[in-house]
Amino acid sequence: MQNKLGILAKRVVVRPHVPWYYRLLIAATCISLLVALSWLMYNAGKKSVIPSKEIIFDAESYRSYDSSTCLQKEKRELCTQTAGLVRQLQINSTLHENLAEQVKTLGEENGQLKEELVFFQHLMSDNNSTNPGVSIHRFEVKQGENPGEYRYTLILVQGGQRPKGFKGNLKFLVTLRQNENKKTVPLTNRSATEFFAVNFKFYQRVEESFQVPADAIVESLQVQLFGKDKTKANLTQTVEPSS
């Protein structure tokens, strides 16, 4: 019987007796802690918020805003940037043109030097077999890039053992056709004379350009070589222009 009562009896919890004023003190302490914690959280949140003066809507600034002025300012900035880019592009284009012209000139000079080197090598190797006296090694005329522009190249050589210096004059005669009319006119130098002075011992290169009317066609160019006497030509050669 005692066993049954012990098994079926309800669970008994023993708590110590706490006076009412202790309970009141504990409650007051908890409330104070909660109030202090709330105050600290409020201050922390207040400090983290952007001050109201920084987010106040400035009505005066809004009234002074002009969309056209803003667009004009942006356009000026874009125009300034565009102008700078255009100037840089023009500079680069000019540099490119100058560089291309220099490359072209250097290429022509390089070809000329190679030609002269081959000529001198040939001249030195065949010096004994070269006929004495002055001769025309090369003579040609080519049409230029511009209308009515022509350019001629003449190479004079003097062979033989220990040749003396040659002093003479050249004369060029241009045969052209214009308006179904054919005529022959002499070229003039910078001194407005028909004779071009030459003075060399082994080798003389003459390269110049001349201009004829745009509607005229050059059919041939003749060169005459004179010694001291300008009345009789020692050498004469005529060539047709090539493109």
Quick tags:
single chain; 243 residues; alpha+beta; Immunoglobulin-like; 5-stranded antiparallel beta sheet; 3-stranded antiparallel beta sheet; disordered N terminus
Task: Chart the SSEs and their pairings.
Layout (H helix, E strand, L loop, with lengths): L1 H7 L11 H29 L10 H6 L2 H59 L7 E11 L5 E11 L6 E13 L2 E6 L9 E5 L2 E9 L5 E10 L6 E7 L4
Antiparallel strand pairs: 1-2, 2-6, 3-4, 3-5, 3-7, 7-8
Protein model, in words:
The chain is of the alpha+beta class. Among the domains are: 80-125; 130-239, Immunoglobulin-like (Sandwich). It contains four helices and eight strands; from the N terminus they run ααααββββββββ. The strands form two sheets. Strands 3, 4, 5, 7 and 8 form a five-stranded antiparallel beta sheet that branches. Strand 7 (217-226) and strand 8 (233-239) form a beta hairpin. The longest helix is centred in the middle third of the chain and has 59 residues, at 67-125. The model is unreliable at 1-10 and 52-57 (pLDDT under 50).
Binned, the helix content reads 40-55%
- Percentage beta strand: 25-35%
* SSE pattern: HHHHEEEEEEEE
Q: What's the end-to-end separation, in Å?
A: 142 Å
Q: What name does the CATH topology of the domain at 130-239 carry?
A: Immunoglobulin-like
The outline comes out as: rod-shaped
Task: Give the structural class.
Answer: alpha+beta
CATH class of the domain at 130-239: Mainly Beta
Helical segment count = 4
